TrEMBL record:
Family from the record: Belongs to the ComF/GntX family.
Lineage: Bacteria, Pseudomonadati, Pseudomonadota, Alphaproteobacteria, Rhodospirillales
Name by which UniProt lists this protein: ComF family protein
Membrane spanning residue stretches: none
Pfam families for the chain: DZR_2 (PF18912), Pribosyltran (PF00156)
UniProt xrefs under SUPFAM superfamilies: PRTase-like
Native organism: Thalassospira indica
Origin superkingdom: Bacteria
Length: 255
C-alpha cells in the first residue's frame, strides 16, 4: 500500500478506535505505543547473557555464571553447562513479570492483534544477528481446537510480521500440535516435559517443500518458561533434518 493511503487508513481507524496502550488499555496518542507508566515497568533483557539460552546475568548474579568465558569470550549459564537444551540458542526481549504478562495476556486473549507490530519489533531486536542466517521462521503451533476458540495463533501473527520485516519466509503449517495439551501453568518442569513430549509433529511433505534438511530455523513463541514446549518443537524439527534452531520469544522467565 502506498504510504499516504496507509496513513489515511490508520487515521480513519484511529478516529473510530483510538490506539490503546498494550500494558493498561489506556488511550495513547500514537499507534502501537506504550504509555509512559507501562514503559517504565518493562524490563528489557540486555547483555551479558548466556550464549546458549539467553539467560541474563545481572550484576549480583555471578553465582549463576557457569564458568569462565572460553577463548571466544562466550559464557554459558550453570544450567546450560550442566545440560544443553534441545534448541541451539534462545533469546527473549523482556523478563516475564507482571508487566510483560499484561501485554501477552491482552495479545493472546483480548483480541489485541493490533499489538503485533510492537511485540514483533521487540522480538526482532532480541534476535539481532540471528535473522541474517535464518532459512525459515516457524511459530509454535496451537492445537486446531484451541485455534478455533481463540481465532488466531498469536505466535503466527508474530511470525508473519517478522517475516515481512526480515525477508525470511515463514510457515505456520510445517509444525503441528497433534495433541491438545493442558495449560502448563502451575505445572513443574518434569510435568511440563511429560505433557508436551511428542505433542508436535512435522508435516513431512511441507518440510520437503521448505527444504528443512540442513536448514536453520527460528522458532517464535510468546514466553519461554522452562523450555519444555520449545524443546518438544525443536526435537520434532530436528528429527526432520533441521540443523539449527533458535528460539526467540517476547518474554522469558528469569529465576
Ligand atoms: Zn499503559
Ligand atoms: Zn544458558
Amino acid at each position: 500500500m502506498i504510504e499516504w493511503v496507509r496513513t489515511v487508513a490508520t487515521m480513519g481507524v484511529n478516529a473510530i478506535l483510538p490506539p490503546r496502550c498494550g500494558g493498561c488499555d489506556d488511550v495513547t496518542d500514537t499507534t502501537h505505543a506504550v504509555c509512559a507508566a507501562c514503559w517504565a515497568g518493562l524490563r528489557f533483557i540486555t547483555a551479558p547473557l548466556c550464549v546458549c539460552c539467553g539467560y541474563p546475568f545481572e550484576l549480583d548474579d555471578s553465582a549463576n555464571i557457569g564458568g569462565d568465558p572460553d577463548e571466544s569470550g562466550q559464557i554459558l549459564c550453570g544450567n546450560c553447562l550442566q545440560k544443553k537444551p534441545a534448541f541451539d540458542q534462545a533469546r527473549a526481549a523482556l523478563v516475564y513479570d507482571d508487566h510483560s504478562r499484561e501485554y501477552l495476556l491482552r495479545f493472546k486473549h483480548a483480541d489485541r492483534g493490533d499489538l503485533t507490530p510492537l511485540l514483533a519489533r521487540w522480538v526482532y531486536q532480541a534476535g539481532r544477528g540471528i535473522w541474517d542466517q535464518a532459512d525459515l521462521i516457524v511459530p509454535v503451533p496451537l492445537h486446531r481446537r484451541r485455534l478455533l476458540k481463540r481465532r488466531y495463533n498469536q505466535s503466527g501473527l508474530l511470525a508473519a510480521k517478522l517475516s515481512r520485516v526480515t525477508g525470511v519466509p515463514w510457515d505456520g503449517l510445517v509444525l503441528a500440535r497433534q495433541r491438545n495439551t493442558r495449560s502448563l501453568g502451575g505445572l513443574g518442569p518434569s510435568s511440563r516435559k511429560r505433557e508436551v513430549g511428542g505433542a508436535f509433529v512435522v508435516d513431512e511433505a511441507r518440510a520437503q517443500k521448505r527444504n528443512l534438511a540442513g536448514a536453520r530455523v527460528v522458532l517464535v513463541d510468546d514466553v519461554l518458561t522452562t523450555g519444555a514446549t520449545a524443546n518438544a518443537c525443536v526435537r520434532a524439527l530436528k528429527q526432520s533434518g533441521v540443523m539449527h534452531v533458535s528460539v526467540i520469544t517476547v518474554a522469558r522467565v528469569v529465576r
